[in-house]
């Protein structure tokens, strides 16, 4: 679930749409703030102008009456001013003398005559400082009453600004709705445009992953002609796919060649194994012909013939088993290791090398592994080990079952693998022909069986370990 919520795992089209939406929201917030700020300044300017005209008009009319404390004339003037005020913006006005005592008010109940005007003037602002941004629907404005430069009283007026607040709210809602609609449209448009732009990339991804790691060339008709960069990318992919096919074919031929190289080496060694018993067999037939009337001599010669023929039979059977076409369908058994030893032992005998051979496992337990690939892996590693070991050195093979896996270990007391040989055995990078008997073939076969191969230097010995998992049983 955490991977789903991680933005880095979302498709590019969704991320671009969200990025576009976020940018639009940010831009909308900045633009809306500018619009609302401009609107507030205009409203404040209009409100200040209205308050200035209203208060200055009252100041001119009320100045003489406030100087003489003529309460009725002050009240009459306030009443006429309220009646003539347009739009009902003026809610309440109170006039006080120079001592702050109320002379008259448009609502005498709120401000009785001779009461203190301080409760109204405390939160009132000067005409030039009034603003529509206070957040309240009613603002109070104060101004002095002067006659010929003499301060004779004060005026406090309450103004209704609820219409200005409603106008700002309506503007904010309109901006919010407009920004949301524009964000939605641009986000969807961005997703659509990006999806169209990414179609060649999706086509490339699909062709790269369709064939289980073997890329399939993209048809020329599917390559876009409008975007030269993407078209060049797709054609480069087609060239890469062709190069991979050519490399796979070259590696297949190389593996086949290395297989024949190993068989050629075995054939030269086995020729000695066949030639020696043949000489003994011919001597035995000559003896039988010469001493046909002597049963004890014939009997000894027949025993020699029997042993020699059995040895030749075992050698020929091992060779046939190693090269039979359908051997990959057979499962492994201890007999396969006996055949391997029979095939490989002449190589070590010819080089006067000691062969250490340890097979640890029951026949039934070996039956979970294919015979052909295991024999091929072991034979190629043994041939490589024999080539690396010095004359009179030591080569070893051990096979054991560990936690359901088959572990093959081939050792030799040679100088160790070169960097090129290690690359052939442990890496999938392309290599030049040569550099080790079947090492790349071993790596490919092990990888095909889902196993792993490692190489270590332990003391004076090189150890190559192959671990193969058991094959899953196919249900009938």
TrEMBL record:
InterPro entries linked to this entry: HATPase_C_sf, HATPase_dom, His_kinase_dom, HisK_dim/P_dom, HisK_dim/P_sf, Sig_transdc_His_kin-like_C, TCS_sensor_his_kinase
Q: Tell me its EC number(s), please.
A: 2.7.13.3
- The organism named in the record is Vannielia litorea
Q: What is the protein name stated in its UniProt record? A: histidine kinase
Keyword Secreted found: no
Tell me which UniProt keywords the record has, alphabetically: Kinase, Membrane, Phosphoprotein, Transferase, Transmembrane, Transmembrane helix
Known SUPFAM superfamilies for this protein?
Answer: ATPase domain of HSP90 chaperone/DNA topoisomerase II/histidine kinase, Homodimeric domain of signal transducing histidine kinase
GO function terms (MF aspect): phosphorelay sensor kinase activity
